[in-house]
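Shall we go through a protein fold together, starting from nothing but its sequence? Label the sequence line and the structure token line clearly, so we can match residues to local backbone shapes. Would you write everything just below, so we can both look at the same thing?
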Amino acid sequence: MQSKYYQVNLQNMLEELGKDRVETILSDFSCPQNEDVEYFLKRKAILFSQQGFAKTFLVFWCSADETESYLIGYYSIASKVIEVERNSVSKRTYSKLLQFDVTSFSEEGCMVPAILIGQLGKNFTDGNNTLISGDELLKMAVDRIHDIQYELGGKFTYVECENKEKLIRFYQNNGFVLFGKRKLDKDETMIQGEELMQLLKYIHT
């Protein structure tokens, strides 16, 4: 038998274990490479889940004999609408976007419903980050979005990341393409730089 991953909807965990127990579990999470990822999970994820702003999914590693289980990462997703300028993506990608244009934004662009992967991070406590790769964690998020869109409709997901070559390349290697950027909000004080790069992915269902 091999070790395995399992995912838990934070909202379900709250209903089953209660807020105090869940906060104890989340307190074990550490992500020194990205303070915003850690802050969100510990300070915002529960509220956002309860109010329906975004849903968070915790990822656990479980040993083959099921005697050990560790929180190794998480991701959060939310429904959004994105603006995409015509010249920001390839003609092929833009033609796909146009099929889902909801407002006839203009001849220069379109507005499309998409699911934002708002947070994605691994838990560095006790080296738990080594139990899963970033590619695997991202695939979990994309696969869940695929299942949601299969039931409800939609074809796109997107991410926002700091303007760092390594981060941008990571998402591009996983099928995302750049389409824009946005200035940081005033409360986004833990993110480096003044803007976030935006990348989208067409999901085949």
